[in-house]
Amino acid sequence: MPLQDDRAYGYGWRYSPLSIGVYRNSVTVFLAALILFIVTMPFAARLPDPGLVEALLLTLVLICGVLAGGGRRGGLALSILLALGGLSAMWGHRFWPGWVAPGIHLAFGILLLAVVAFHLLRFILRAPRVDAEVLSAGVATYLVLGLMWGLAYVFVAWIAPDAFVMKGDYVGNRPFDGFQALYFSFVTLCTIGYGDIVPAAPVAKMLAVVEGIMGVLYPSILIARLVTLYSNKPR
Description:
Helix content is 66%, strand content 4%. With 235 residues, the protein is mostly helical.
């Protein structure tokens, strides 16, 4: 389908009716940013200042999430506001830790990723056919769920430091945050459950249960939707 001018929505970009981002292939770029973030995190933990690398990567993910979250005026405005709030709080805490609480940027990040996941899932369910953008949106949504729950686990651990019990090689390491939260999130989302990190607080247990349910339901719904789209493809 040819690209159309999106001046009616107040943007200077060109917009495809099949795309939810502010420009074509924005979902693919967002997926690449998510993969870069996940792959780089374990190596960043070994650097002298892992917090800086984590902040830079999370900034990239949030910006790409804004671009992929919605090309319409309302969705884009909400994503921009959440991203600005989260990035301001994150970098403000880094340079002025006494003035900005670390949990603020986590809350903004969770809300932004929830908005992005909602728009991506709606795009998948409304797509008329399967193409590269739909497949990218499907994978990106799954990774967004893992990242969103990872931030939620860090937020819970910030409120209650004893919310998670770490066993084996994790004992004596730095507090539960960063890559450890991301690792636990995806292990839970994939329903692997190694048992090296165990939720202890009721809120942490509830989040882990909900994420495990999402990890089972989402692939089933996605596969069913993609099969439906492919079976309805004109011959």
